[in-house]
Amino acid sequence: MGLKVLPDVGDVVENLGITGIAGIVLLPVLLPVLAGVGRPVAKGIIKGGILFYERSKGAIAAAGEMWEDIVAEAKAELGEDRLRRTRSIEEAR
User: Fold this and answer.
1) 3-43 tens-digit pLDDT
2) 69: how many CB neighbours lie within 10 A of its CB?
3) Distance CA 70, CA 8 (A)
4) How many angstroms separate the Cα of 68 from the Cα of each of 17, 37, 38, 57, 81?
5) For residue 43, with 0-12 CB atoms within 10 Å meaning exposed, 13-18 middle and 19 or more buried, which class applies?
6) What are phi and psi of 44, to 5 degrees?
7) CA torsion, ordered 37, 43, 48, 49, to nearest 10 deg
8) Which segments of the chain does DSSP mark as H helices, in order?
9) For 41-55, what is the HEC assignment?
10) DSSP letter (8 states) at residue 5
């Protein structure tokens, strides 16, 4: 009983089936075709993403400014509330 390094070819063929064997045989032919089609598709998706980002930069900046304004207003209101409380405590003394 020796050590098996390579699997039995019959077992491999039986486990793969017709579709697996066809895939292995056609892979060298289909891979370049898929790469040729996939590259332009990928570039198109990337271009669309860049255009979307560039068009939405203004909206994103406006939303950021609006958020900063809201935060500043909230901080100012908190400061006013603290000032009122401090004054009411001093007046109570």
Assistant:
1) 566 666 566 556 667 777 777 788 888 888 888 888 888 89
2) 10
3) 71
4) 63, 45, 42, 16, 20
5) exposed
6) -65, -40
7) 130
8) 9-92
9) HHHHHHHHHHHHHHH
10) -
Would you say 24 and 32 are in contact if contact means Cβ atoms under 8 Å apart? no
Token pair 């939303």 is at which residue? 63
Distance of alpha carbon 31 from alpha carbon 58, whole angstroms: 41
What's the one-letter identity of residue 34? Answer: L
- pTM for the model: 0.42
Residues 21, 13 contacting (CB under 8 angstroms): yes
> What's the CA gap between 83 and 89, in Å, rounded?
10
